[in-house]
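Batch manifest line 424
LIGAND: iron/sulfur cluster
JOB: complex structure
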Amino acid sequence: MNVHESEKIAGIFVELGYSSTDKVEEADLILFNTCCIRDTAEKHILGNIGDVKCLKKANPNLIVAVVGCMTQQKGMAENLKKKFPFISVVLGTDNLSELSSAIRSIEEKNKRFIADVHDDPNVDVGCALPIHRTSGTNAWVNIMYGCNNFCTYCIVPFVRGRERSRSPKDVLAEVRSLIAQGYPEITLLGQNVDSYRYENYDFSALLQEIAQIDGKFRLRFMTSHPKDFDSKVIDVIASCPNICNNIHLPVQSGSNRVLKLMNRRYTRERYLEIIDEIRGKLPGVGITSDIMTGFPTETDEDFADTVSLMERVRFSNAFTFVYSPRKGTVAAEMEQLPAKVKQDRITELVRIQNRISSELSNVYLGKTEEILTEDVSPKHEGCVCGRTESGRLVTYPGQADLVGKFVNVKIESARSSALFGRII
Ligand code: SF4
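JOB STATUS: finished
ARTIFACT:
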């Protein structure tokens, strides 16, 4: 989500006549696109903003701007101005369309400080903004913004507002244009794509209509929520060969007690039911997840439930992480676990997931998979890399001219979750 917002910001800057530089001391404008989902990310960004002070001293004309969801927190714009008086612009995620005029006002009218941070429930965030896409073969497309769920550990609904779905007409027009430009992969984005709704149009209908657009392309989407997951989506994936057999379905915990405390509004049993339905209808599907440990009051039994769910589902990959309290959320006020307990548990989760990913890699040996070549391999000279439709990374001999092309690769070896092969 933030990567795609950065593409929109870059698009605005290109229109304003700016170009990017690797040398920060030569910059005329520095923008921080912030994220406050984790406390550590916020501390990190505040440190980075502080580091710019000396650059502003050396170049008084330097424009420093801060945008993103961190600024949407109550009182944050004023705090930033007080703490870092050299900041010129503070805008919220709903106000990106004002970035261009804010920068012009600073440049031309020598205004000192512009802040506009407010929730706008009607804003179609940034849809009319120019986009400078930087994500290679994949193009991100927002289908909705915000979240209505209020998981007790998460600050997103407070800083990104309530759910707003884009009109199917706008989404389809954007996707058609991207395919015409030659993008071979489209990823639909939303905090909770399963609750996409525009008049009578739901996510499965949108997915199906996009998949039917002419052209050779792959379609992915994220993120799904087990509470809202709709069987119709599985049927659409099964009937449309260009929708990738890859579903990211965050479970967070395998314990019903913890899921309730998290306000996730599904049970372990319901989650497993969805997994069984997906596996039954989509053979070879890659299911990935987010798994948290160390949530307040998580007991050894709760943790054992998470481990047993991982062993039962066997995710092809999982983003395992330790709960860390986020100020302003309900869970931050609950009784916290000692750091050592959290550390021991995350070490165990990582170990289990690595083993499962590695075991599942062996299933691919000897098979031929269609791969979309995404990039030159950063680790293996003379090789390129790309993904199976199930989301597995594959490395194979090839040159940069293959990037963006679909190739058939025979998988010959596997190392942990990474696969290696050759084009046939
Ligand atoms: S679904 Fe829950 S975790 Fe995801 S963005 Fe919404 S509140 Fe946060």
